[in-house]
Request: fold
Amino acid sequence: MKKRNIKLPVMVLIILSAGILLGTQIHRVFPGDNLVESLKKFNDVLTYTQKYYYEEVDSEKLVENAIKGMLEELDPHSVYIPVKQMKAVEEEFRGDFEGVGIEFQVVNDTLTVVTAITGGPSELLGIMSGDRIIKIDGKDCIGITNDDVRKQLRGPSGTKVTVDVIRFGIKEPIIYEITRDKIPLFSVDTHIMIDKTTGYVSVNRFAEKTTDELMDALQDLSNKGMKRLVLDLRNNPGGYLKQAVQIADLFLDGNKKIVYTKGRRKEFDEMYTAMHPSEYEKTPIIVMINRGSASASEIVSGAIQDWDRGLIVGETSFGKGLVQRQFSLPDGSSIRLTISQYFTPTGRWIQRKFSDKKKYFEDLMSREETEGENFVHNSEKDTIRPQYKTDGGRIVFGGGGITPDYIVKSDKITDYTANLLRKNIFYLYSLKYIDIHGKSLIAKYPDIYTFKNNFELREQDLKDFFAFGDSKEAKFVQKDYEKEKSYIIARLKAQIARNYWKNEGWYSILLSSDKQLEKALSLFPKAEEMVKKK
Reply:
């Protein structure tokens, strides 16, 4: 998936960037290698095409397509990143960008604030969820595109932009002059107390500051009485290997092996072990994963499972056992190249087969699993996958992701719910609901705990919601609603809560209908027993 930060081999840069121009000199680096002839052949084809093709050609585009074609012959995770995508990639893993600090959607051609990012300049000025931005720097922005929003609102720290905002209940537009600043991108979505002793943390990726964010979250939960932890890595696609190691180290004592890598070149063979004492080494832990959990997520969950340190709950993970490193090219583009395999502490290589790249991703979505206890991993018993033993002697398997100790499948949503989501009905209706009930709502429910425990949608509210969906071509289906009633109501309630309490409001409500979490919470006696045996 992403990333790594080790030394950049000079020869890789020579092959991919200077090779075309320096074809006759490359033998000094690779004497006797047929790479010299291959590069000359490519250079000849490019030259002939530029010189003789019947139309003008874009040589830069031809070279980029050639690079893409080259990498497509490798594994699914070796990719080319064009210059125009590099900024977004860097921002994602650096963990910040420069701008005004809002999450937004263009709703019915109107730029609408989903939430002002905590600590950003928009939040500090009082810009609120549901605000409609109608002008940017005095220019009407009705019908604006997502790309244009980013172009106009992002910019260097210290620069200013003026926005005109329409807010429900206020007749005249409110004009804000916003000074752009660095905006943090958080990899910890939320951390909350599920009950008096159980903490919950959701981590969405492994970026530069993820360990620091997680440490802050764990400390806050400890201060609130946390004695046991649910670490949610569902749909976490991975990130930096170093961050995965540091996070696993928080929960493993001694000098326990966390992960090791092996590559064709010896400098990519590395061993990572637990090194730093932590107050969470004896905290009972359950890690939640699903088919969207990959790479660094699998390193953490694999180490926890191999050492019998805690339980893994959910669905079998993605199955990515390859390590990439990003190499910069002179024009600002990059390649992300697989340079090694990684192995869990027991020696498991969890990479799925990828000979057919199309099936590689299709198989992931069509994978079927049997729900239930899998502590001794009987669900994989009849496979030809290689077997390994955990620290406690349990059999686990390689070659296909991290299989949970307790398998709980994600619910398949009905067509009606899928249509509600596709048409963005939950969000759109929540704006309408808040426009009508906003003032009385916040007066009656001043905090998320009061709202969570006491707020209920009335029957008339639900009828209005169904009618609203009908008007947006998300037609009400009674049998689908009856099947997913609790989820639909919880999601609508969570969407309303998010307008006031951001991610804390969203997760506090939505997790109440999460059957994977419900199962995880019921398994803490087993997780506590595993800790005592250490």
